[in-house]
Known about the structure:
Elements: E1 6-9, E2 12-15, E3 31-38, E4 45-51, H1 73-79
Amino acid sequence: ALAGVTVKMGTLSTTTNTAGRFEFLNLATSGKYTINLTKDGFLPTSISIEFPTAAPDHALIFTLTAKMVPYLPENASAYMPS
Length: 82
């Protein structure tokens, strides 16, 4: 778990808590989204996810796992576009 990660999805933004968790509440539109994760000292990463339409008065809960790689010069070249 990594605290303090900035999580952005479209115009929404939040930060992970001490358990590495975050939430976006009351999302009403199903579809494909990209979740971008950033934290100082780490390479940025992103996750693509597709949200289905929830039944009325129901919540959908997703568990996502992403690996945040510490920024080191030897790691950076593997993530830079050529």
